[in-house]
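## retry 2 of 3
previous attempt timed out at serialization; input unchanged, resubmitting
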Amino acid sequence: MSLSLSRASGIAFVFILLATSLASRPQTLPATPHTPDILGIYPGMPVNAARAVLQKHSSKYSVQNNTQPETGFSLMALDIRDGVSVDLTQAPNDPTVWRISRGQNIWTDHPMSPSALIAALREKYGKETMSQDRGGGGQYFYWLFDPNGRLLASADPALMGCTTGGFTLRMATGPLPTATEIEQKCYRSFFAVTASLNRTSNPDLLQAYNVELANLPYAYSAAMNTLRAHDAVAEKARQEQLKKANQNKPSF
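## retry succeeded, writing output
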C-alpha cells in the first residue's frame, strides 16, 4: 500500500513539474490584425516594434518606460499636453501591445472643436458603431471591430459599459475568478476604439479628449496564461513544502 502511494505521489509530482515547465514558456496568443491602430501601433504588436513606431512621432521627447517596465511605456509631448501610453501583456507571454491610449488637454490658444476631432476619427476608422451622451459635457463614441479588425455597423449596447482601466492590474494577476455578465461580454467581444470628449463651458470647444484602442479578448487570453503560470509555480512550491514536511520525521 505504501509503495502505491509513493508511486502515485511521484507521478503527481512529475505532472506538476511538467505543468510548471509548460506554463513558464512563452504562450502563443491569437493572431491579431494590424488594423485598427493608433499612430501605427496595434494590439498584438511586439514591444520593440511598438516602441520604435511611437518614437518616430517625436524628435523632441523620448519614449519612457513605466515604473514597472514590463507593463508598458509612454510618450508625453509636454509642450502640447499630448500623451500616448502603451500597455503590454505579461510573462510568460511574449510582451505585446494590448491597449493604446492617446489623450490631450487643449490649449486655449490652439482650440479644437468636437466636430473636428470626430471628423478626424471618422476619416481614420469610419462611422462610429454607437455613441452615448453622459451629460455634463461628456460624450463617448465607440468603434467596435470583429476579431479580423472589420468595423461593425452595430453591436450590443451593453458593450458601452466596458472599461479597460482596471484590467491593467489583471494582466499581472489574472482575471478574477468571478465576472459579471457585462464583464464576460467585454472579455469575449470588446475590440474597440473609444473616444471620450470633454467640452468647455462653450459646447463648441473641447477641453480635453481621450482616444483608446483595446482588444480585451486578446488581453484576457494573455492574462489567463499569466494566471496559469502563477498557479503552476504556487502548486510546485506547495508540493515541495509538502514533500519536506513528510520527510521531517521526529524521533521517539
